[in-house]
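Module 6 notes. Inverse folding takes a fixed backbone as the condition and produces residue identities as the prediction. Think of it as a translation problem where the source language is geometry and the target language is the twenty amino acids. Below is one complete input and output pair. Work through it position by position during the lab.
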C-alpha cells in the first residue's frame, strides 16, 4: 500500500468508526504532513480524492470537514407484490415457476454477493402474468444458508419474493436499474420481439449474518415507467411505482 493509500485508509477508518463524526473538522494539511512525514502535495491529493467521493467537504480557509451522510434515497425502490397490486386494480394474476434448482455460484458472482465460491444457492426463474399477458420475468438466487427452508419450498402457491418477505428478514438492500435489449430467449418468455427494450430492476439483500437473495426482475420497456416524488427535506424517497401495462 502506498503512503497516499495509507493516509486515505486511515482517514476513512476514523470516519467509519465514528471517531470523526459528520460535521467534524479533520486535521489540517499541515497536521497530516507532520504526522505522516510526507509532502503537502501527497496530502492534498488524498483530500481531493475524498472530496470527489463525497467523504469530506473542503472549505476554503476553513479546512476540511466530514461530509454529512449522503441521501441515497434515489436508489430506494420498493418492488411491489404483484398479486396484491393486481388485486387492487381488479386484474387477474398468476405466476409460473420456469426453473427451480440448486446451483453453485461462480467465483466472480460469489465475491460480489459476499459468499464463498462454490456455496450452494437456490436458483428460481419465475414469470409473472397479468390478465394472461406476461408482465415480468424474475431470475433469482436465494442463499440456502440464510433461508434453508427454501430448499423444501416449491413456490407453486406463493412467488419467491413474497415467500422471502414472509420468512427471511433483511437489513440491507441495494438496487440497480438498467436497460437491456431482449435476446431470443427473453423475448420468447415475455412475448415481445427480439431486441425490444426492457427495464431490469436488480435487488440484492442481506441481513445481519449474510446474503439473502439476488434478483433481476425484467419488464418489457413499453408501458412501464419509474415515477417518484420527493422533497429536499425528506430522509428518503417514498416507494417508486412501476405501473402495470
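Target side of the pair, the amino acids:
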Amino acid at each position: 500500500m502506498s503512503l497516499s493509500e495509507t493516509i486515505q485508509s486511515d482517514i476513512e477508518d476514523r470516519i467509519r468508526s465514528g471517531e470523526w463524526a459528520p460535521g467534524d473538522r479533520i486535521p489540517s494539511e499541515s497536521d497530516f504532513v507532520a504526522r505522516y512525514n510526507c509532502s503537502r502535495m501527497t496530502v492534498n491529493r488524498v483530500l481531493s480524492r475524498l472530496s470527489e467521493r463525497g467523504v469530506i467537504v473542503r472549505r476554503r480557509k476553513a479546512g476540511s470537514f466530514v461530509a454529512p451522510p449522503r441521501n441515497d434515497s434515489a436508489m430506494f425502490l420498493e418492488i411491489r407484490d404483484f398479486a396484491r397490486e393486481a388485486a387492487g386494480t381488479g386484474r387477474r394474476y398468476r405466476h409460473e415457476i420456469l426453473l427451480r434448482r440448486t446451483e453453485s455460484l461462480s467465483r466472480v458472482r460469489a465475491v460480489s454477493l459476499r459468499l464463498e465460491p462454490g456455496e450452494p444457492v437456490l436458483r428460481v426463474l419465475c414469470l409473472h402474468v397479468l390478465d394472461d399477458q406476461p408482465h415480468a420475468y424474475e431470475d433469482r438466487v436465494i442463499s440456502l444458508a440464510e433461508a434453508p427452508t427454501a430448499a423444501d419450498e416449491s413456490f407453486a402457491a406463493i412467488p419467491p419474493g413474497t415467500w422471502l418477505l414472509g420468512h427471511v428478514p433483511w437489513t440491507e438492500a441495494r438496487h440497480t436499474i438498467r436497460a437491456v435489449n431482449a435476446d431470443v430467449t427473453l423475448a420468447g418468455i415475455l412475448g415481445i420481439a427480439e431486441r425490444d427494450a426492457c427495464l431490469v430492476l436488480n435487488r440484492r439483500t442481506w441481513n445481519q449474518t449474510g446474503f439473502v437473495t439476488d434478483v433481476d426482475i425484467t419488464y418489457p420497456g413499453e408501458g412501464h415507467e419509474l415515477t417518484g416524488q420527493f422533497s429536499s427535506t425528506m430522509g428518503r424517497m417514498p416507494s417508486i411505482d412501476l405501473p402495470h401495462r
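Reference fact for the lab report: The domain at 3-66 is CATH 1.10.10.10 (Arc Repressor Mutant, subunit A).
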